[in-house]
């Protein structure tokens, strides 16, 4: 890159060398009043001016009244010696970048002066007789390039005329005096309201001292001489509003409404009177810089938006400034990439961010069906269960080593668990541990239950009396996640959608895609967004300053502080506006002097906090139903257990009876086998003794005949020899 620069400079020097055999001091020109030395002095002046304009290339345009080649060679020689690259006016130099100086501070531009960060400036070398013709051609060219290239008119004894062009433009006129070899530099500004121009001296040049500037070029005039600036805006409180004729009553002598007209602004040319925060700022600027202004509204109601530039077909205020219908967009605009392509921005006039706004009554109560259960946090439930298990296991382990001292009803694991559960639900237990070790575990568990009751009571009381209302969402991520129950919308014509697309995060991607898929979520104005959020589950993402003014005395809107995309608000300038630097300088003085803060307090006033709703909620059946629900569940479980016990009892009794009968049959068979083995004993019935002293009478076939006492058994079964003998004497038939 350095080699390329050196080669370009060498070529430039070769082209600008004087013709051999001709003295530079005696070299004639077509204008006999300027010698080669004079032209080279002009070249040195142009080189110094190029450094003040922050350019490195000069396009030299020579009027035909001069010897074009000779004049160009002498001027270009001086430029090349100063390391400024000269080019001919017809070389087709590519357009220069239109961005301004990159040296910026917190306010906007550098504290020194507004400057160009361009590569090229155009110098028109002419004579006094052809000055008007040169200026006319230069202004036409100025309009074609949009003022992106500084224009300089250089000549001998040039006198700028007060008559200018009916367009916004600026150029420098450098008048060279041959006798003193001095150059007087003046800046000329033309406005769209009249053909009269404003001429402002900015410095002079002397060969011995160089260029001395007492006012930086490209800033604007110190005195606008009453010229008119056109402002593009539309009413949106409190920034721009139509004034009202208010009648003051005796009871409101201490109440001040800034919308009321006490006098007509002297610098405003509209038939209707506009007031507002931004109008107050511009009234101060108009007084200091001596200009007037006119507010111009968009032609169609649909263009009452700020606008985004080319992305929305140059609609709204940004489109009006881009089409040169106005010089300044009177609105608090955020800087975005699309807007930077079409307009410039002033220093900031406010600072704001974006919050979500919903209706105030869109709150949820934390008292409901689960009120009496929600007082137990998850860790409390887990801790209670762990304590119950640990105490049960410990007491069971102790009882296993002291079985001879422990009552039988708390010996098993499940009986101990049921005992501790009785303590949790505040029920008494019939049996206590017999040993001191067991009682220590029992007392420790009982003390833990007391602490648990106190904690539960405190949490329940707090939930019923302190925080009974809560928002449907409290963060941007939760608001996006609440879709489709809640929808989020923005205002059309703002850079907010572009900010959402450029932001990194799943919530931003989801919301931007929803806005693209459903354009109905975007509204045309703040009023439309407010009307929508008051009637539906609609969260409006808007600027804090504007919404705080709209609802500073209205508590029907609730603000959710998500604080997205903090931004500075700026005025919008036409691209390369000649007097933008002077407006910015005075605006910076208002900010640093505290005037902006005082104006803001005048319009926004002191915020009056809304009266909070009563934190107590009247409890009805739906709020206390949880307690009855727990009782109902207990009753149902008791009935279920009762039915299960009845069924189990019947089953157990049936099994016990069948078991007893089977035991009787077994004993009968044993007795029968014993009698059969006894050959000397013959009887028609046998009996079996039971544990209560009764006998079971059975027949020889084993059929059950009933119970009988021992005496009856002895009488019945006593051997009768006579009878037996008779039966034995009877022969068989």
Shape: elongated
Poorly predicted regions are: 1-32, 93-117, 683-692, 698-705, 707-733
Going by helix content, strand content and strand pairing, the class is: alpha/beta
- The number of distinct β-strands equals 22
Largest beta sheet: strand ordering = 2-1-3-4-5-6-7-8
**Distinct helical segment count:** 21
Radius of gyration, taken over Cα atoms and rounded to an integer in Å: 52 Å
Amount of helix: 25-40%
The CATH class of the domain at 2-213 turns out to be: Alpha Beta
CATH topology of the domain at 2-213: Rossmann fold
Mean pLDDT: 78
Concise overview:
The chain is 40% helix and 18% strand. With 733 residues, the chain is α/β, with parallel strands linked by helices.
Give a description of the structure.
It is built from 21 helices and 22 strands. Helix content is 40%, strand content 18%. The strands form five sheets. It has an eight-stranded mixed β-sheet with strand order 2-1-3-4-5-6-7-8, with helices on both faces. Strands 12-9-13-19-14-18-17 form a seven-stranded mixed β-sheet, with helices on both faces. The chain has a three-stranded antiparallel β-sheet with strand order 20-21-22. The chain is α/β, with parallel strands linked by helices and 733 residues long. Helix 1 packs antiparallel against helix 3, helix 2 (36-52) packs across helix 3 and helix 5 (277-289) packs across helix 17 (580-592). Mean pLDDT is 78; it is low at 1-32, 93-117, 683-692, 698-705 and 707-733. Among the domains are: 2-213, 3-Layer(aba) Sandwich (Rossmann fold); 367-466, Helix Hairpins (Orthogonal Bundle), CATH 1.10.287; 622-677 and 684-727, no CATH class. A hairpin with a 6-residue loop joins strand 6 (182-190) and strand 7 (197-206). The chain is elongated. The longest helix has 57 residues, at 621-677.
